[in-house]
Structure formats: C-alpha cells, structure tokens
Automatic annotation (TrEMBL):
GO terms for cellular component: cytoplasmic vesicle membrane; Golgi membrane; mitochondrial membrane; phagophore assembly site membrane. Residues 1-26 form the signal peptide. PROSITE patterns: MRH (PS51914). Gene3D superfamilies: Mannose-6-phosphate receptor binding domain. It comes from Decorospora gaudefroyi. PANTHER family: AUTOPHAGY-RELATED PROTEIN 27, MANNOSE-6-PHOSPHATE RECEPTOR FAMILY MEMBER. This is Autophagy-related protein 27. It holds the Pfam family ATG27. It comes from the Eukaryota. Residues 138-148 have a biased composition (Basic and acidic residues). Coiled coil: none annotated. Belongs to the ATG27 family. The chain crosses the membrane at residues 272-294.
C-alpha cells in the first residue's frame, strides 16, 4: 500500500552531490587535501597579483606580465573587459602579457594567457588540481620543507588553437611560515570588476619594488622580495611523455600551510557527512510528505494513517522505551550482581 521504496534516486542524488564540488569548482580552497592532511586556504582567496618581465634586447622586444591568482574562485572580468584583454571565464590563474616594441614608442599590445582553470568552452579543459605535501615529495630540494605543492592545470595558449598551442599550468608551493598570514606585501587586483564589487585597499608595500627583471634560466630561485607571494619562474617544462607545458611557478609563504595551522574562523565544517545527513534528511522528509499525500489521495487516509508506515512510526516510542529498559536492566543487573546474585 505504501509507495514502492526505490533507493536508486537517493543513491544517484548522493553520487551527483559528491561529484559536483570537483567538476564544477575544481577544488575547495577551504578544504584542500594533500596526503591525508587538510589545509584551509580561505584567507588566501581573492585575486592576488605578481609581476614579471622578460626581454629580448636583440629583437628590441619586451614582455611585461601580470599574473593573477584566485585560489577560491574563478577570476572575474574587469569592467569593460573582453576576450582581448581578459582570460576566458573559468580561469583561476591568468597571465596578462604586455608586448612592448622597444623600437617604436608607445606601441604595445595586450595578450591574455589562460594558465589554469576549468573552462566550459572548447573541449572543456579542466583544472585537475593536484596537491602533495612538500615533505612527501621525492625532490631533494624539498627536504625539510613543510607545506603543500599545488599543481593547477587546464590552461592553453593560444587557447583556441589545437595544434600550435602550448599547455599551461601553475605550480604553487605553499610553504609553512608561522610568522606570515600570506598577505604581507600583497598586491590585490585593484581595477574595478564587472559585477561592481568594491575592491579592498592596495597592499602595504610600494609598488615600484614589484617590477623586477629576472635573469633568464634562473630556475628554482624565486623573486627577491619580502612579499609572501613570490614569482619563481615561467618557463617551458617537459611533462611526462615529452609534452611541453609552460609552467608558472609561485611560492606562497603562509602559516596556513603549516600542518598544525590554526583553525580558520567561520570556515564551513560541512564535510561529506554534513551534506550526507542533509540529503538523507531531505529525502526522508520528501518521502513522508509524498507518501502522506499519496495515502490521502488514494486511500482517503487521515491522522496516523496518512504517514507511510504510520503504524511503525507510531510504535517507535514504545520500541525505544523497550530498548532503553533492556539496556538499563542489563546495566543494573551487571552492576548489582555482586550484592544480590548469590541470593
Ligand atoms: C599590470 O599591473 C600594473 C600594476 O598593478 C598595472 O599598472 C598594469 O596596467 C598592469 N598591466 C596589464 C597589462 O594589465
Ligand atoms: C603598432 O604596431 C602595429 C603592428 O605591430 C601597427 O599596425 C600599428 O600601426 C602601430 N601603432 C602605432 C600607434 O604605432
């Protein structure tokens, strides 16, 4: 008489719910998992900018880069932005390159470079974020370092060209530094965004210090600055199978990368189980409501009879009482055996 109980819809709902955060958002900056250690990088969210410039004096060319990273969300376009000046929607790491022709005055062009993100357009490139503890890394240079290495993929430049393009990725090393929040010397993206959000104040350091030319091929060394987020390189690297991938390397010194990092206030603690219980609760509620409605319409049921399995539900208090009595009885029996058992 009760509607048939199929668990398939509930299971598929659960499956979808557990897949969503990964496929849609890439990863959750509030709960980053690296080799069973959790990190909360919520405080590092929002767009943060680092600079770099390289030049080819023989060709009288210069390239100035602004790299913007947002760990927690995809980057928003600036007001009046277009694909000529902005990365594709879904980018979390974006490079804006200014190509300067040193031979002709004031003639420069802007080229956006998608470095990492999850993009809906084209063939749906995915950020495929990977996290590993520096202490577990095979590399010798990581010995004794505490922190996480994040590899963020999905970028390509030129984005639309399948053949000529080069894959892009960002590798960010979050290094434990108990003295730093990670926002020291920070440069926020200060230009107004499309959705008109109010931007926070600029970082506390002088901007002129930020633009530093770097020697070519100084791999492995980071920019010499006191800022917590530092540029360490943007070179072509060989991934497995001889595939070239141009890799933006950043280092981020922060206490949130310490394995005993302080808990971040206001962080949401809904883990998988939180959502699991919410979904189970909603499913039960929906089942009861729908079941009642069916019973009401089909059988004209009233009162307790409205509920599917109404009689079972009605009996729950008695079953519980019975159970409690048994438990109490066995505990008392066990506790008093010494006194009375012999009688
Ligand atoms: C890069 O950043 C600097 C400083 O924030 C800014 O003046 C410049 O216009 C930016 N360049 C591009 C191409 O966005
Ligand atoms: C800038 O250079 C482009 C070619 O690279 C040329 O077509 C354009 O006329 C130049 N603009 C100025 C203002 O010199």
């Amino acid at each position: 008489m009760a509607p048939s109980r199929s668990r398939a819809p509930l299971l598929s709902l659960l499956a979808v719910a557990s897949l969503l955060p990964h496929s849609v958002w890439g990863f959750d900056c509030k709960d980053i998992l690296a080799d069973r250690t959790h990190f909360n990088f919520k405080e590092l969210g929002g767009p943060h900018v680092v600079h770099w410039q390289e030049q080819d004096l023989a060709k009288e060319l210069q390239w100035k880069y602004n790299f913007t990273v947002d760990l927690c969300d995809s980057l928003k376009w600036h007001k009046g932005g277009s694909l000529a000046t902005e990365c594709h929607h879904g980018a979390r790491v974006c490079g804006i390159r200014e190509n300067i022709d040193l031979s002709s005055d004031k003639n420069s062009t802007i080229t956006p470079i998608d470095i990492a993100g999850t993009f809906q357009t084209q063939n749906g490139r995915n950020i495929d974020a990977r996290f590993e503890l520096l202490s577990r890394s095979k590399s010798h240079s990581d010995a004794g370092r505490e922190g996480v290495r994040a590899t963020l993929n999905g970028g390509r430049f030129p984005f639309d060209k399948k053949k000529e393009g080069t894959n892009q990725r960002a590798i960010i090393e979050f290094v434990c530094d108990k003295e730093r929040t990670g926002l020291e010397g920070d440069e926020k993206d200060v230009r107004p965004h499309e959705d008109g959000d109010k931007e926070e104040k600029k970082g506390d350091d002088k901007k002129e210090e930020k633009l530093r030319a770097r020697e070519e091929n100084s791999n492995g060394k980071c920019e010499d600055t006191d800022a917590s987020l530092r540029f360490c390189g943007y070179q072509e690297e060989i991934e497995d199978k001889d595939k070239k991938v141009r890799t933006l390397r950043l280092e981020w010194r922060t206490k949130y990368a310490c394995e005993d990092a302080p808990a971040v206030d206001g962080g949401s603690h809904w883990g998988f189980f939180g959502w699991f219980f919410i979904i189970v609760f909603l499913a039960i509620a929906a089942y009861l409501i729908f079941g009642s409605w069916l019973n009401y319409n089909r059988y004209g049921a009233r009162g307790w009879d409205l509920l599917p399995h109404g009689d079972t539900i009605r009996d729950i208090p008695y079953i519980a009482k019975d159970f409690a009595r048994k438990v109490v009885g066995s505990v008392q029996g066990g506790g008093s055996r010494g006194g009375y058992a012999a009688v």
